Amino acid sequence: MQAIEQESLTGETVKIVMVGHVDHGKSTLVGRLLHDTGFIPGTKMDHVKKVCEEQGKGFEFAFLLDGLEEERDQGITIDVAQMFFKSKKRSYVIIDAPGHKEFLKNMISGASNADVAFLMIDAEEGIQEQSKRHAYLLALLGIKQIAIVVNKMDLVNYSEAVFNSTKEIYTKYLKTIQVTAHAFIPISAYQGENVLAKSTKMPWYRGETILEILDGFTAHDDTSKLAFRFPVQDVYKFDKRRIIAGRVESGSISIGDEIVFLPSGKSTRIKTIEKWHPSADKPAPTMVVAGESIGLTMEEQIFVERGEIGCIASNKPVVADRFSANLFWMGNKHLHKGGKYILKLATQEIECVIESISKVINSSTLEEIAKNAHEVAKNEVAELIISTKKPIAFDTFDTIPETGRFVIVHEQDVRGGGIILKRAEHFSAI
After folding, report:
1. Ordered per-residue pLDDT tens for the chain, 430 residues
2. Residue 27, H or E segment
3. How far apart are CA 235 and CA 242, in angstroms?
4. What is the rounded radius of gyration, in angstroms, for the C-alpha atoms of the chain?
């Protein structure tokens, strides 16, 4: 297949996350996309060919992603990676996460927010429990542009009946979690069928290829129209200035506007907007919008810390020490009522307590397991109330997703991710 002509990755960029059950073909699809679009260095190709020959295998596109020898030996991808390629329309960044734990780490913590998700299902193995859990996580994270990829169609003789059955069953599940798939695509990532070019082996499929579907998605949700939110990442002293650094998660702001930092309540006006790599031929910015990482200097020197959220006085986030939430738990040890954990929301990090667990739900079947529970097991979903050691700033997930989702850390690792439903009215101290 002829590769797309390589150009520098400039202009509009769409972020893609690949999710799915182990061995359903995520890495193979990514490797195929990189290969067929011409974004694999020749030295890498030669190395993979050599490794495959040594192992007595045909060419493995998944090996293009595996940088560690033990990954190849075990036949699984064990690391999170980011890859880049370009279509004739625009640039893409692929976030390849091997499991929902790494997926949550990257997505909820804000390290990389995906615009698009491909959820992989093995045509031969069918829909697995993890296939359902990943769909639930996509709903939890607010990713609305989702395509379902039914892979390994070559192993079922490119059967239309198998594809239609998978589509029917999975569509019913998606409806229960209020997720609408943009498309279902039958492919063979290994053979390259319906990846860049239409497959001649599946003439019954009238839809688009993987790349055509990608090019049809929008670059990102327009969060610039939402209320301004600017989580503080750090404060730097540069020459005689204090620069408050962070990423604009939503909304916009201009020089001269008043900005309020919560939960401290300190306020001042913006003096300058600093970019890390300013263009020599462009004037300094006077306005910033969602998605930009910037530094701000203020007309009056105020002391704010990492974790505070900048906003406009007329549209502030909630400041409270108690809220209700939906939580997806991934820890091997159960989450316990009354247990103390670390909550991370945007750049805030604070001790919290699980005050009550009103409901526990099976994340695959969505059946209610228990009411007024005392614990939550791995891969279960809970409706609960969380209290924090001191007030934090947040939004409900339905108003501003970027500041309405969080992770729970236990024993120095991410164990769960959730979304805030509403403020809980009654104070409960730790």
Report:
1. 444 444 444 457 788 888 887 776 777 888 788 878 876 655 555 555 566 556 666 555 555 555 433 333 444 333 345 677 888 888 888 875 555 556 656 555 443 467 888 999 999 999 988 888 888 888 877 788 999 999 999 999 999 999 999 999 999 999 988 889 999 999 999 899 999 999 999 999 999 999 999 999 987 666 778 999 999 999 988 777 789 999 999 999 999 999 999 999 999 999 999 887 666 567 778 898 888 889 999 999 889 999 999 999 999 999 999 999 999 898 889 999 999 999 999 999 999 999 999 999 887 777 889 999 999 998 888 999 999 999 999 999 889 988 998 989 998 888 888 889 998 875 444 4
2. helix 26-36
3. 7
4. 23
Final residue of a structural domain among 216, 248, 279: 216
51 in the same domain as 200: yes
pTM for the full predicted model: 0.73
Please name the residue that has the structure tokens 């002293």.
237
Give the single-character DSSP code of 224. Answer: G
Task: Dump the DSSP string for 41-69.
Answer: -HHHHHHHHHHHHHTT----GGGGT--SH
Reduce the DSSP state of residue 33 to 3 states and report it.
helix
Report how far apart, in Å, the C-alpha atoms of 427 and of each of 74, 343, 384, 419 are: 50, 17, 15, 20
Examine the domain organization and report whether 227 and 212 are in the same domain: no
CA distance 343 to 322: 12
Task: Give the separation between CA 272 and CA 280, rounded to whole angstroms.
Answer: 17
Q: What is the 3-state secondary structure (H, E, C) of 142-207?
A: CCCEEEEEEECHHHHCCCHHHHHHHHHHHHHHHHHCCCCCCEEEECECCCCECCCECCCCCCCCCC
Q: Is residue 430 part of a domain?
A: no
Q: Of the candidates 273, 296, 311, which is a domain's last residue?
A: 311
Question: Strands 252-254 and 287-289, how do they pair?
Answer: antiparallel
Pair 34, 177 in one domain: yes
